[in-house]
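Long-time lurker. I teach an intro course on protein structure, and each term I like to show students one example going from raw sequence to a predicted 3D structure in token notation. This year I'd like something fresh instead of my usual example. Would anyone be willing to generate the tokens for the chain below so I can use it in lecture? Attribution to the forum is fine with me.
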Amino acid sequence: MDSPAAATSTPRRKPLQPRNFDLSTTAGLQPKPKPIALRIPPPIRGSPGKENCPISPPEPEPEARPREASLAEELAAVRQRRERLRADREKTEEVLRERDAVMQRWAVELEKRAEEQRNLELELRLLIKLQDLISCSMVKTPVFFTSSAIHGALDEF
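-- Reply from a regular --
Happy to contribute to a lecture. Here you go:
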């Protein structure tokens, strides 16, 4: 099994840079600068498309009001907020009371309709039983006609 392919050693990858290089030869080999249009702009801080962004602590936000706000102003703001919450709670309770009244009326109406339906079903069952009783109580007797009675009835017409 001596094949020419087996005789040659496996080709090795060519290194990217020679291991032993001269500074004199590399000084003449300067890479070409990229054209300006193809240069990538420097990354913008916090750009959403990058995965490996450096993590920095969030910048402190400027306070909405100065720290020197007086206690009276804070107390007035709290009172206004509490008053607003109380008014909202009263509105909500009123809406809930109205909904409860509507639901109660609806429940009463449904109960009335259910009672009417039960009464109609009972009446229908009674009528069906009455019809069955009438049909069972009727005695079906054979009627014998004589030929003279038949001829007499035909003559009248």
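Some talking points for your students: DSSP finds four helices and no strands in the chain. The helical segments are 4-7, 23-27, 71-137, 147-156.
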